[in-house]
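Need residues for this backbone.
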């Protein structure tokens, strides 16, 4: 619920409205949007207080249709949030490309890929050390060793790193090496994990669950932000539908819908959406054309021997070709790629 105050409301009226809500036990969030003041009530006391707040001096109206994710909503902040990942700003006019292998496999592999993607214009290196695999018999990642290999690749390439954390108890360990923590699709509603990454300072890359609605994604982001961490980037990575021609169905409309509803940066992951190498460049282009702030893409020096997600991984030359095309799309959108 949002209480909209009258334009030019006096400080005294504003203070008494805030005091009234706090004394009644309500949790609130004050947003100044130009010369308008909105007070969001973020819990279940809201409805009970509405009738009394309605008649207070300085209150213009009450909107009960306000979204259930007040802090990440555009109602709270009209301007785009910019999230810093190491020295790279995501959500500004640059389209930030994050690239690297699905899994970190060896020092040689991550170093080769880091160099290749950096030369082609990637700004952030991705790579999984802890892998959430559908089958217990699939490669589960190198774990802590993978984090050390990623940190070495960062030293060598200068690229900040994003890597996945799959368990609340690993947040400290992964956070000691990474520049951004990835929450994978399978963990989008692991609420303890969300609260844990919300209680530490590194930015969070939150991927949409394979069967999750846009509202559920925004509520998951609200978990992180309400736990104290405002630095969240959302990622559309394809959802499960009846279609079998692609691994998932790339929900391109999620991009403009999210950009309308939230101030957080939004990126796309065409690799997990497509599942097939040849489809990755066109989906990446579609994502940027739809208004995405960045692209997360899997690249491998030798995809045929990759331990995970080889069929959807671009080769380094394939990635380089894709980047030159993406630059033209970014340009058409009034944005740029480094
Ligand atoms: C990944 O990025 O390699 C990954 C496992 O992604 P998702 O969680 O979107 O499946
Ligand atoms: Mn993968």
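Answer:
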């Amino acid at each position: 619920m949002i209480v909209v105050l009258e334009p030019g409301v006096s400080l005294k009226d504003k203070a008494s409205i805030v005091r009234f809500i706090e004394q009644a036990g309500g949790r609130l969030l004050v947003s100044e949007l130009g010369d308008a003041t909105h007070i969001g009530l973020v819990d279940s006391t809201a409805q009970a207080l509405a009738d009394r707040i309605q008649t207070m001096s300085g209150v213009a109206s009450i909107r009960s249709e306000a979204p259930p994710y007040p802090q990440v909503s555009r109602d709270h902040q009209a301007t785009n949030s910019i999230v810093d990942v190491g020295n790279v700003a995501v959500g500004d006019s640059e389209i930030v490309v994050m690239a690297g292998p699905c899994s970190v496999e060896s020092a040689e592999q991550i170093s080769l890929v880091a160099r290749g993607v950096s030369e082609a214009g990637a700004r952030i290196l991705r790579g999984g050390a802890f892998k959430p695999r559908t089958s217990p018999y699939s490669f589960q990642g190198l774990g802590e060793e993978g984090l050390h290999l990623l940190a070495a690749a960062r030293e060598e390439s200068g690229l900040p790193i994003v890597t996945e954390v799959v368990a609340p108890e690993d947040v400290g360990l992964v956070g000691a090496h990474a520049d951004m923590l990835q929450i994978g699709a399978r963990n989008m509603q692991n609420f303890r994990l969300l609260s844990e990454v919300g209680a530490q300072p590194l930015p969070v890359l939150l991927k949409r669950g394979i069967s999750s609605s846009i509202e559920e994604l925004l509520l998951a982001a609200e978990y992180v932000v309400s736990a104290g961490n405002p630095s969240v980037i959302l990622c559309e990575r394809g959802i499960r539908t009846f279609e079998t021609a692609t691994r998932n169905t790339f929900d391109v409309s999620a991009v403009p819908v999210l950009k309308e509803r939230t101030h957080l940066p939004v990126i796309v992951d065409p690799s997990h959406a497509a599942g097939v190498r040849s489809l990755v460049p066109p989906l990446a282009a579609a994502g940027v054309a739809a208004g995405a702030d960045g692209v997360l893409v899997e690249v491998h020096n030798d995809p045929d021997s990759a331990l995970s997600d080889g069929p959807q991984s671009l080769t380094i030359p394939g990635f380089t070709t894709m980047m030159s095309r993406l630059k033209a799309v970014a340009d058409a959108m009034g944005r740029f790629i480094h």
